[in-house]
Amino acid sequence: MSDTNTPAGTIERANLDWSNLTFGYTQTDANIRYTFRDGRWDEGVLTSDETLPIHIAATCLHYGQECFEGVKVFETKDGDVVVFRMDENAKRMDFTARKILMQPPPHAMFMEAVERVVNANRRFVPPYGTGASLYVRPLLIGSGAEVGVKPADEYMLVVFVTPVGPYFKTGFKPVKMIVEEAVDRAAPLGVGDVKVGGNYAASLRAGTAAREKGYADVVYLDAKEHKYIDESGPANFFAITKDGQYVTPKSDTILPSITNKSLVTLADEMGLRPERRPVDIEEIFSFAEAGCCGTAAVITPIGSIKYRDREVVYCPDGEPGPISTSLYKKLTAIQLGEAPDTHGWLHVISQ
Length: 351
Ligand code: PLP
Ligand code: COI
Hints:
Helix content: 10-25%
Number of strands: 18
Bound molecules: pyridoxal-5'-phosphate, 2-OXO-4-methylpentanoic acid
């Protein structure tokens, strides 16, 4: 498949119910794959094949040499197709890859891959105003065969896209969370600070049990002391104190969230004195607001948190708190080109 099959000029949009999309997989026109072999990356190839031919001894299958990223693409108010802070995702994939001895994709190649795959799927970029976005999922796998526990000598960078709605199905509405103490997400000095699939496998049991009990997800504590908040399964944690300060956990076992980093910048501009520091779980009982943040989760307000036999309720009327709402509006206004992009967070993907 060539890169030039994108409709020129006006795009005939795919026939989807854009405003009611969930955070799920929808088939699109193409994905892109780059292979690292004999010490070099190839030029990458677009394909409509949704499957991967993979060696039965590939290190990603046996020894978890796998990592991924999540990037969002939006159509702005002015009709541009923009990607949010993908340079940060490129850097984070580099950091992750090095931590588990995978071949890091050059940043320029990572960003080229995103642009090429978005351009090949422009008709799947959700229209402005629908609340949906195009989720881009870069995936790096050890594809070379090994039987001993050692790094592969071949890798694949695969990037696919899928149009999505909100990660938590209620969207910008408060969700119920529960603190999990029977399962640790990530160990000190382990891989909690990088985006490897094993961290998500480790969170499946607690996440599924929480949902069965009617909670949206889990808040994990640090694995060493079970005293400080780490993060949620798919997102970072933040809170607003009663005197209006933005507080978010400082921990070596959480993913450095690009959304959280952006919110810290916005919170600073809003005079919320953002602070990253260890957050004792007992503090949840004195916060005014709390939320999850991430590419998929955007800002998801936390309505209540159950901790052992106690529960704190932040949103008794079922509505998000005022500061979380302002942060959400500021962030999404930038992403949608409704507010000036003063930090250079958007990159226009031209056809
Ligand atoms: N924490 C975890 C475990 C995640 O999976 C994600 C999602 O990427 C985040 C935090 C949020 O990171 P970001 O804002 O970069 O998407
Ligand atoms: C993202 O927010 O991009 C993520 O990767 C989280 C994932 C669990 C959906």
